[in-house]
Every structure is written in C-alpha cells, then in structure tokens.
C-alpha cells in the first residue's frame, strides 16, 4: 500500500483530478469500471507523477495507505451508489470515501449517515471549475466530518485553486453541506449568466450596438466592479466571428439554453426551505422558456412593435445605465444565494462560515470575481449580517443604482425586451424595502375562503373574521 489517495472514475473530471494530485507529489491509485481508461491515463500522463494503476476493486483498495482515502468521480446518481456498494465492504473503520461528483445534497446526507454507521467517513465534496479546474486547481467544497477534514484538508487544499496564496478549499460543514453549497454556487452561476445575457440583449437592441461593440463594453466593465470570469469570457464570445459564415458567433447559435439540472435543484430546494431566490428561479425558468421552441413559434405572430434604437449619444449614456442595473441585480442574486445557504445551515445544523464561502469562490470556479472579496469582507466584519443590502457600502451602491436600474427595466418593458432576472431582482429589492406589502390582502383572502386566520398589526393573537355572518364579526382563533 503506497498511494495516499485513490481515484475511481477516470472520465474527464476524475482523470484531471488524479493528475492534479500526482502533480502535487501524491501517489495516486487509479481505478475505472472500464480498465481501458486507466491504461490510457498512465500511457498518456504517467510521467507527470506517481500513479498506481489497478483493475480490480480489491487491488485498488489494497494500493491505498491507511486510513484509506478513496475519491469517487463517476456519473452522479445510481453509479455513485453502485460504486459505494462495491467498495464499502472492502474498507475499514476510519477509511474515507470522497464523492467529488455533482451529487444532490440529500443523497449525500443519506450516504453519509449509512457509511457513518459502518465507521466510514463519507465526504461529499463540491468540485467546481470543469475539467480545466480539475487539472489546474478547482474550488473545492468538502462536507463530512471535521475529523476527516483534518486528514483530507491539506490534500484538497493542495490541489485547489489559489488566490493571493490562499487555497480555494475549506471545510464547509458536516454531511451534505459541501454539495449543498456547490448546488447554490451553480444556481448563482445561472443567475449571473442570465443577467449578463440580459445586459447584452439591451445593449444590442436598445443601444443598437453590434456584438463586437458590446464585447468592447464588456472589456471595459471587466476592469471595474463587475470584474469576473463570466464577464471576461462573455467579451471573448461576443468578439468571436463564425469562420464558415463570417457572422458574429452569437448570431449563428440557436437561442435555446440547455441545463444539466443543478439550477433546477437550487430552485426546488429553495422552495422547500422558503428561500426567496427569485433571480436564480427566473434565470432557470428563462432557460426553460427559451427552449420551448414550439410555444415561442405559436406566440411570435402576436408580437408587438418595438421602438427604434437609441441615437449614438444616448446609447453612450445608456451603457453606464445598464452597468448599474447589471451590478445591482447581481448583488441581489448573490445575496439571495447567501440567504439560502444561511437558511439551510439553520435547517440542517451546519456551521457554515459565510465569509469563507465567498473566499473559496474567488478562484477555480465559474463565478470567480473580484466582487467576492467584498462579500467576504462584509461577512468577516459581521457574521450575522442579515443581508448584503444591510452592509453600508453595498447599500450605498444599490441606492445610487436605483434610478438607472428602474430606467433600464422600464425601457426594456416598453420595447418588449424580456428582462426576467433584472426585473425579478428589482422586485425583490422593492419587496424588502416596502413599508407595507399587499401580503396583508392575501391573508384576508385566505381567511375569507379558507378560514386560514390572520394576525393583527395592533394586537398579539390569531384571528378569524366570520365573513358570512351579519356584521362580519372577528373572533380570536
Ligand atoms: P461522467 O459523469 O461522464 O461519468 C463517467 C464516469 O462514470 C466513467 O468513469 C464511467 O465509467 C463511470 N461510471 C458510470 Br457512467 N456508471 C458507472 C457504474 N455503474 N459503476 C462504475 N462507474 C460508472 O464523468 P465526468 O464528466 O468526468 O464527471 C464526473 C463527475 O463529476 C460527475 O458526477 C459530474 O456531475 C461531475 N462533474 C463536475 C464538473 C464540475 O465542473 N464540477 C464538470 C463535469 C462533471 P466507464 O468509463 O466504465 O464508463
């Protein structure tokens, strides 16, 4: 037994993580259901470090130093259970299984509990950054026991991305906390992508800019407070010309957005937790709606007219307006994500450091951005911050953004340009700041048709109005 870590599941992600461990000086045992993948890895990359290729489960487990550390990188779902069922009987108390796949956090909780009863540490770990991240440094979000992190932490930190010398890896919390936080990361990613896409759409169809001109706008934005990986790649995509047709690349791609489902999980889970992640939900629904081609075809003849693009001098001013709207909406979307993490921590008893979550997302992952430093600082200053909007600097920025934010959404609406993420973010902000919400009327309706009761503003207690009786008297319920 010579390997400090073993990786089973050697498709793109597993192969690159195994190479990353080896490049950091660890001896890595390799295993894959189809042995050809194991052989191919050693043939192609064997000289990058120390690998122990194995073909049977028994040989794989025998190759691992104790306590054994075995990482699963297979297709999330049934395959993960199949692999656990195959390996767990070969392990001993104190050994560790790390699942780096995109598992649902509730599956991770179930697996962790079952393996804990057998003395095995199960560490569901979010791994972000795709295949490039896996090789060069992902953001790593491990859950599981603190005891397992004491052993695994240094290894996972070693292979993770680094920002200012700090590893993008931290123990998120127990059992499924890591996979939960990874799920929310992906939900925020959906929102961020949709917001950027809406900003593009407005610059294209309100300002009348070409994709190449918009690429330049994004390059400028990338030097400011919006600086992020997603803004950077957006500029590159918009500047790209399709070689075959000489058209802007963005014009030759079908406008039906696909998804693998982590955004959907975030929204489903948010409904269960009562977390109002409206921007993430709208971004997820926007992808779904864009893909309903038949519905869109059926409605297209109903489309109304739109106004002409802005004149050049107006367009120039408009760019700054859109920047405000994008930034303010982004703050809201991220704030909603953090609210959801806090809600889950309370529900599942996880001790999650909200500032650390921002810190480890600064590198390796898709939503890496300068802005995360600010979120980290906000939570480090006040770990109980109820919302980013209550942090003075963010509050000030949002106040300044308000007028342009509203202008952008109003103009989009007048022209019939959909901005579901921008407008849901603003609606959420207006919900939070409203003195009174019409929720009071909804409570009245609920009481009227279902005797669901209500609470009063002026007295404690629960009340019901006898709506059908003469004089409609109120009774204490
Ligand atoms: P895939 O998700 O395509 O899975 C392929 C791997 O699963 C192969 O090694 C395959 O073995 C193995 N496998 C399957 Br399928 N069924 C199995 C079974 N019943 N028993 C044993 N092995 C089985 O690979 P991937 O794209 O490298 O992703 C790996 C994990 O990482 C997934 O959970 C995925 O969601 C996640 N992921 C994360 C990111 C990210 O950015 N974080 C990106 C991509 C993927 P075979 O070779 O014998 O068919």
Automatic annotation (TrEMBL):
- Top EC category: oxidoreductase
6-phosphogluconate dehydrogenase C-terminal domain location: 178-468
Q: What is this protein called?
A: 6-phosphogluconate dehydrogenase, decarboxylating
Q: Which SMART domains match?
A: 6PGD
Under catalytic activity, the entry for this protein gives: 6-phospho-D-gluconate + NADP(+) = D-ribulose 5-phosphate + CO2 + NADPH
InterPro entries per the UniProt record, alphabetical: 6-PGluconate_DH-like_C_sf (IPR008927), 6PGD_dom2 (IPR013328), 6PGDH_C (IPR006114), 6PGDH_Gnd/GntZ (IPR006113), 6PGDH_NADP-bd (IPR006115), 6PGdom_BS (IPR006184), NAD(P)-bd_dom_sf (IPR036291), Pgluconate_DH (IPR006183)
Name the encoding gene, please.
Answer: gndA
What is the role of the protein in this entry?
Catalyzes the oxidative decarboxylation of 6-phosphogluconate to ribulose 5-phosphate and CO(2), with concomitant reduction of NADP to NADPH.
Q: Which organism is it from?
A: Catenulispora pinistramenti
**Which keywords does UniProt give here?**
Gluconate utilization, NADP, Oxidoreductase, Pentose shunt
The EC number(s) given in the record are 1.1.1.44
The record's annotation in PROSITE patterns points to: 6PGD
Q: In which pathway does it act?
A: Carbohydrate degradation; pentose phosphate pathway; D-ribulose 5-phosphate from D-glucose 6-phosphate (oxidative stage): step 3/3
